[in-house]
Design brief:
By secondary structure, the chain is of the alpha+beta class. The chain has one domain: Alpha-Beta Complex (Sufe protein. Chain: A). Helix content is about 50%, strand content about 15%. Helix 3 packs across helix 5. The N and C termini lie far apart (about 50 Å). The C terminus is likely disordered.
């Protein structure tokens, strides 16, 4: 009985993975299975948190050194495409100055991943908007002379 169940589960998982690769592409599949930069960051210089119309919430954390992003990370409670897009948004911010980060759009993310099905494209918009919020908060706080956003309620809403 156990062998039959194990065989069934393996076949089911293989089918799910094959369907995912077919629908989302190998690059998105690989990033979903092994997302980069998916963790919170203590004392970020820039922080953005947005809940999209689909209900997924994304957070992006940025650390700057010499005016450029030296570390970036993200978290999401969303679906696989949200994970993929958040991971790419964080990666695309690395080494960039605020003005360069503001040029990262949902289309930039979609082009980097090779596209997503229509019903998942909003995840790229969520990631791009969250990234923009993080960099905007960073530049506003730099203008007021604050070093980081530690004093802000990062996870409370």
């Amino acid at each position: 009985m156990s062998d039959n169940l194990d065989e069934f589960l393996k076949e089911l998982q293989d089918k799910i993975f094959d369907d995912t690769i077919r629908d989302y592409g190998q690059k998105a599949f690989d990033r979903w299975r092994n997302p980069l930069h998916m963790h919170p960051m203590e004392n970020p210089d820039g922080y953005g948190r947005i809940t999209g119309p689909c209900g997924d919430t994304m957070e992006i954390f940025l650390r700057f050194e010499k005016g450029k992003v030296s570390k970036a990370s993200f978290q999401t409670d969303g679906c696989g495409p949200s994970i993929v897009c958040g991971s790419l948004a964080a990666e695309l911010a690395l080494g960039k100055q605020p003005d360069e980060i503001r040029k990262i759009t949902n289309e930039t993310i979609l082009e980097t991943i090779g596209g997503l099905p229509e019903e998942s494209r909003h995840c790229a918009l969520l990631a791009a908007n969250t990234l923009r919020e993080a960099v905007d908060r960073y530049t506003k706080q730099k203008a007021t002379g604050k070093d980081n956003i530690q004093g802000n309620n990062l996870h409370g809403g």
